[in-house]
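Late entry, phenylalanine complex.
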Amino acid sequence: MNDLPASLETVRARFAEAAAAASNEETLEELRVAYLGRSGEVTAIRRGIGRLPPPQRPGAGKAINDAVAAMEDVLAQNRDRLAARSAQEALAQRIDVTFPATRPALGSLHPVRRIIDDACAYFERHGFAIVLGPELEPDYYNFDALNIPAEHPAREGFDSFWIRDDLLLRPHTSPMQIRTMQRHHPPVAIVAPGKCYRRDAVDARHLFQFHQIEGLLVAEGVHFGHLKGMLDGLCRALFGESQRVRFRPSFFPFTEPSAEVDTTCPKCRGEAPACSMCGGSGWIELGGAGMVHPNVLREVGYDPNAVSGWAFGFGAERLALTRYEVDDIRRFVDGDVDFLEQLGALA
Ligand code: PHE
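Prediction complete; structure with ligand written out below:
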């Protein structure tokens, strides 16, 4: 026991190091028992005093007492350290009821849905009914009844998805003209929005699944001027009061005369020769229109000498491209939440 001070010092240092590393009160208590407890290391050293020559005993006793006091200090310091840390943790975990809540992510209506709703609302204000019909149609509704007999070249213009020889995914909403007129006597005034399908390669202007809005008005004395007025009003309601509409002569088997309908490019208003939306023409094509062909009226049992009507079919994505000044139709279907949120924030 001659090297008592040295071995006490080693024990004390080992104890201090272990105590500093302790991460909880239990570990500290285990250390206290292991060093200072009844069968602890320091207690064992103290028991050795009895084997020392009597003159050395008081010195050894004092050295041990000093070491024990120092170790108890270390214990106390580390208890304080742990207590301070857990108080800090409690503070960090405290719920701050004044903290602003996390906003739940709210979706918004898809821009194509919105433009369809707005277009329908415009027609409803003018007394039109909204009708919905099947996306899978017999060729009768899609073609024959619309004055497009089998072998007619116009069938080729609708690159269709055929399900069976006589059943296809509708490439336009015009079948709803027939379905409506077969069910109701004139006058009829309807809009029929819905999905359409064509075997088109997807690019900036084409999707193989898209939406159309069909319109049909049949009554006594309906003429082309009514069509122009309604479509002009539609474009102003959707895109702004200064919007204009242009009709270009065209051909559809189910209308005569027929027209392609364009509206002023809202991006450049015809003033940018390299406009990314209209290619500099100043006009954006919305779809087809015309006066309902007498053959179509006859097919549904209407008398073409008693009633007349107009019809139109607009691409809903076209309307949305125009309103939101988007130059690639694929943006509407690629599920980009940032894009949808941006448009959702617009009026
Ligand atoms: N159904 C025609 C198309 O999809 C558009 C149209 C509808 C034309 C009604 C005239 C009248 O191309």
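The mean pLDDT is 93. Will revisit in the morning.
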